[in-house]
Write a structure and sequence with these properties.
Number of strands: 17
Number of domains: 2
InterPro entries: PyrdxlP-dep_Trfase, PyrdxlP-dep_Trfase_major, PyrdxlP-dep_Trfase_small, Ser_HO-MeTrfase, Ser_HO-MeTrfase-like, SHMT-like_dom
Largest sheet: 7 strands, mixed
Pfam family, one: SHMT
Cofactor: pyridoxal 5'-phosphate
Low-confidence stretches: none
Radius of gyration: 22 Å
CATH superfamily of the largest domain: Type I PLP-dependent aspartate aminotransferase-like (Major domain)
Number of helices: 16
Mean pLDDT: 97
Distance between the termini: 4 Å
Subcellular location: Cytoplasm
Structural class: alpha/beta
Shape: globular
CATH topology of the largest domain: Aspartate Aminotransferase, domain 2
Strand order of the largest sheet: 5-11-10-9-8-6-7
Catalytic activity: (6R)-5,10-methylene-5,6,7,8-tetrahydrofolate + glycine + H2O = (6S)-5,6,7,8-tetrahydrofolate + L-serine
Length: about 425
């Protein structure tokens, strides 16, 4: 059992770290990974991230660098840009942001000044820290106003969005989040943004792969700026991109460099290019639709077992489960599920009466299990394991939890992951 590609040089030079890499590869292979922001990259993406490209500094943009020796790097970055533009149908793409948070910060830097008003989804309702949460720089440096969801439906309250936009006249309106199980209505956000002359930023970090594969409507033509990570459903490396229409391109590029960053991570840029080439293939469309089919099947199976799903289900890769009726908090449930070989995260639910670090819910995503080849037929069994584990956790029955972990490993042995050979 070993990491792929093999790491003999690392093993000889630093056996302690090499051993931990092998342990992590085994852990990823032996667990049902349901964290909505995680996935498995292909062997090709994995190899691209470990190349000599990491040796090169490349401040600036292709053809306009501050260091010499960019003949190869410029080609790689241009390829990544062209592929992003083709996959998403955008005028402009910047592939340099280090991660999703800096990508979002670039939108603030490009189109707002400290103290300006921004409108985003509240963290408890499913938004992201960088959408103006008080603990984030975006909440400390800007006047952040937040919209939420309707209590009776769990869906975005567009009457509230419009009222807040008209009252506060934000410079930016941010659509998207980290715990939204339903289709994001980009046309509705765009209409409100036009009414108040705001820049609409679509944060598609979670659904980028679904959009690329045609399993979720695209914000292109509605949002002025689109930010995304390149992992999650897009199945690329840990990086980010910002895509824009032609009008907003220059401001975004200046905000990324020199506004926020120095040299891009060229090995990551290459891996993004590889992932985008994979996303352009017909089989990626099948993959994206299978993610959604798996999420719907898992949601239905959980509902049958008495679980309460925020909004009553899902349209995408994500399920948000309120465990209040199960008489257990999200955190102890998530920890027990991890011991049972089912990896997910505890998460606040809208109008959650509990504290953020001890919330009522768990968040589930189906991108990683879909990459492994699991289909809708497997979801009732996963729901059964979740149900049994939650019940066992409430009774502090560790033997039952350990038994489930064994059943999980047995199933997954038939579905190998890229990056590990059993």
């Amino acid at each position: 059992m070993t990491h792929q590609p093999a790491i003999p040089t690392l093993t000889a030079a630093d056996p302690e770290i090499a051993g931990l890499v092998e342990d992590e590869a085994r852990r990823q292979a032996e667990k049902i990974r349901l964290i909505a922001s995680e996935n498995y990259v292909s062997q090709a993406v994995l190899e691209a991230t470990g190349t000599v490209l990491t040796n090169k500094y490349s401040e600036g943009y292709a053809g306009k660098r501050y260091y010499e020796g960019q003949q190869v790097i410029d080609q790689i970055e241009r390829i990544a840009i062209d592929r992003a533009k083709a996959v998403f149908g955008v005028d402009h793409a910047n592939v340099q942001p280090y991660s999703g948070s800096p990508a979002n910060l670039a939108a603030y830097l490009a189109f707002a000044n400290p103290g300006d008003t921004v409108l985003g989804m509240s963290l408890p309702a499913g938004g992201h820290l960088t959408h103006g949460a008080g603990v984030s720089a975006t909440g400390k440096w800007f006047n952040a106003v937040h919209y939420g969801v309707r209590k009776e439906t769990g869906r975005v309250d567009f009457d509230q969005v419009r009222d807040l936009a008209k009252e506060h006249r934000p410079k930016l309106i941010i659509a998207g989040g980290t715990a939204i199980p339903r289709t994001i209505d980009f046309p509705a956000f765009a209409e409100i943004a036009r009414e108040v002359d705001a820049v609409l930023v679509a944060d598609i970090a979670h659904i980028a792969g679904l959009i690329a594969g045609g399993a979720h409507p695209s914000p292109v033509g509605h949002a002025n700026v689109i930010t995304t990570t390149t992992h999650k459903t897009l199945r690329g490396p840990r990086g980010a991109m910002i895509m824009t229409d032609a009008e907003h391109a220059k401001a975004i590029d200046k905000a990324v460099f020199p506004g926020l960053q120095g040299g891009p991570h060229n090995h990551t840029t290459a891996a993004i290019a590889v992932a985008l080439a994979e996303a352009a293939k017909p089989e990626f469309r099948d993959y994206a639709h299978q993610i959604v089919a798996n999420a719907k099947a898992l949601g239905d199976a959980l509902i049958e077992r008495g679980f309460d799903l925020v909004s009553g289900g899902t349209d995408n890769h994500l399920l948000l489960v309120d465990l209040t009726s199960k008489q257990i908090g999200g955190k102890p449930a998530a920890q027990a599920l991890d011991r049972a070989g089912i990896e997910l995260n505890f998460n606040a639910v809208p109008f959650d009466p509990r504290k953020p670090f001890d919330p009522s819910g768990i968040r589930i995503g189906t991108a990683a299990i879909t990459t492994r080849g699991l289909t809708a037929e497997h979801q009732p069994r996963i729901a059964e394991w979740i149900d049994r584990t939650v019940a066992a956790a409430a009774k502090e029955d560790e033997d039952a939890i350990g038994a489930i972990a064994g059943e999980v490993r047995e199933l997954l042995s038939a579905y190998p992951i890229p990056g590990y050979r059993a």
